[in-house]
Write a structure and sequence with these properties.
Layout: E1 16-21, H1 25-44, E2 51-56, H2 61-64, H3 67-78, E3 85-90, E4 95-96, E5 99-106, E6 111-115, H4 124-139, E7 152-156, E8 159-163, H5 166-181, H6 186-189, H7 191-205, H8 208-215, H9 219-240, H10 250-289, H11 292-299, H12 305-327, H13 332-340, H14 342-350
Parallel strand pairs: 1-2, 1-3, 3-6
Antiparallel strand pairs: 4-5, 5-6, 5-8, 7-8
């Protein structure tokens, strides 16, 4: 990195802090972080005038896993603008010798990488804020605070890595990847599948055979049918759109196991949310359409509230299985975007090796 031009007076230093983030969720995180970071840094160093800038740009897999290339890419994208410290936020998972990597720092270059999935599922904004403050504390002499980068420190030459050891660290990485995948994106991505779900559910509402079968189902059977129907739709999504990674090497197998687990969990959560929304809609429709007078000749008694709930549960499971027929009509990119996230999918096309493996 070229020596930065002076960015403040001797009386009032004005460090230029750059937050560069991958497009999408990382950029949203960086924008929210900027709002609080200036005040927090001012509390750490009251005699410093901090200037924080957010840039949305992807460095690519290769540049993001190599600090010299990251510095070069930053300088090219900033077109000669000066910066004293750069923190790159990415939603890609990284590892250092099989341990989830939280942050990668280069004190000599005043640059750092934060991997958002390693921060887990809960309290992500706070963890991002604390990790960023910890990075700045280590890389700039003007900052003096007690906040530290989470994880255990590892050294590799001039690079300083922070990793999460043990099974708990791997679990946090997996949950963070699911969070980064944003399972709720499945809703707009499965519009045609929803058509199959509603069509099958509508058939169940007017079928006297369905009314009779539901009469003999208890909560255990309904729960098993629910799990089976969600599993069927998840499996069909993975098979029909080729979402399952098939590794060819040991490192690739480690990467594939993590990505496949994240994909399956993402799909299960997304489809479960879809199932819950459909269940509420079916309950309301069932109570409105299937009056006691319509059901009594078939079930031989007036329907109870429990019967309506069980019938709606059964119809929802039927509709979810029927939705698998609509999945085959989906646009593959829409499904992949919901399962992996657009950023992960594009990065995988750029590099077949998982970044940060060592």
């Amino acid at each position: 990195m070229d020596d930065p031009e002076p960015t403040g007076t001797a009386e009032t230093p004005r460090p230029q802090v750059l937050l560069m983030a991958d497009p999408g969720w990382p950029t949203e995180v960086a924008a929210r972080l900027k709002e609080d970071l200036a005040d927090l840094l001012a509390d750490m160093a009251a005699d410093v005038d901090w200037h924080i800038t957010v840039e949305s740009s992807s460095l690519g897999v290769v540049a993001a896993s190599d600090l010299p290339l990251m510095v070069q890419a930053l300088n090219e994208r900033l077109q000669g603008r000066t910066w004293d410290l750069a923190v790159f936020l990415t939603d890609l998972p990284y590892r250092d010798q099989a341990r989830p990597l939280v942050a990668m720092l280069s004190p000599s270059d005043h640059i750092a990488l934060l991997s958002l999935p390693s921060l887990g599922l809960f309290r992500v904004p706070r963890r991002v804020r604390d990790a960023t403050l910890g990075v700045i504390t280590e890389l700039l002499p003007e900052a003096s605070g007690t906040t530290r980068v989470p994880g255990r420190i590892q050294y590799a030459g001039l690079r300083r890595n922070y990793v999460l050891p043990g099974a708990r660290g791997r679990l946090r990485l997996l949950s963070g990847m699911v969070r980064a995948n944003r399972p709720w994106l499945l809703f707009p991505g499965l519009s045609r599948a929803l058509a199959g779900v509603f069509a099958t559910a509508a058939f169940g509402l007017i079928s006297s055979d369905v009314w009779s079968v539901s009469l003999h189902l208890d909560a255990v059977h309904d729960a098993v049918l629910m799990f089976a129907s969600i599993t069927a739709l998840v499996t069909w999504l993975i098979v029909d759109h080729e979402l399952w990674e098939r590794p060819s090497s040991e490192i690739a197998r480690q990467r594939a196991a993590l990505y496949n687990a994240a994909t399956v969990l993402t799909l299960y959560i997304g489809i479960a949310c879809l199932y819950a929304a459909l269940y509420v809609l079916v309950i309301l429709t069932t109570v409105f359409v299937l009056t006691p007078e319509a059901l009594n000749p078939v079930i031989r008694h007036d329907p109870s509230a429990g019967y309506y709930l069980s019938l709606a549960w059964f119809i929802t499971s039927m509709g979810t299985v029927g939705g698998a027929l609509g999945v085959g009509l989906e646009d593959e990119d829409a499904v992949r975007q919901a399962a992996y996230g657009e950023r992960q999918r594009q990065s995988q096309r750029q590099d077949t090796d998982w970044p940060g493996d060592g």
